[in-house]
């Protein structure tokens, strides 16, 4: 299983290699280049599936058929503390 995925920011093009958690999906990601808050595209479970070079570990393990995408995604927080 591949645990490192390179996320490419759709806003500024910055590519950053990140280590993915194996037990959870990362729903939000702060771009290291422009600071934009990335969130998954519709139908994707996490930012790695949407913007990374490698899909998240649960997708790799299940062949992409089942994932946390079947669960209710966390509600986007309208009031980001930053
Ligand atoms: Zn960016």
Textual characterization of the structure:
With 82 residues, this protein is α+β, with helices and mostly antiparallel strands. The protein has one domain. Helix content is 12%, strand content 17%. It contains 2 helices and 4 strands. Strands 1-2 form a two-stranded antiparallel ribbon. The chain has a two-stranded antiparallel ribbon with strand order 3-4. Strand 3 and strand 4 form a beta hairpin. The protein is globular. The site of zinc ion has 8 residues, from loops.
Quickly count the domains.
1
- Which residues form runs of ≥5 with pLDDT under 50? none
Classification by helices and strands: alpha+beta
Envelope shape: globular
Strand fraction equals: 15-25%
**Which sequence of SSEs, written as H and E, runs from N to C?**
EEEEHH
Question: What small molecules does the structure contain?
Answer: zinc ion
The overall strand count is 4
Strand order of the largest sheet: 1-2
Average of the residue pLDDT scores: 82
Estimate the helix proportion, in percent.
10-25%
Largest sheet: 2 strands, antiparallel
Total helix count? Answer: 2
- Cα radius of gyration in angstroms: 12 Å
Cα(first) to Cα(last) distance is 34 Å
Summarize the structure.
The chain is of the alpha+beta class and 82 residues long.
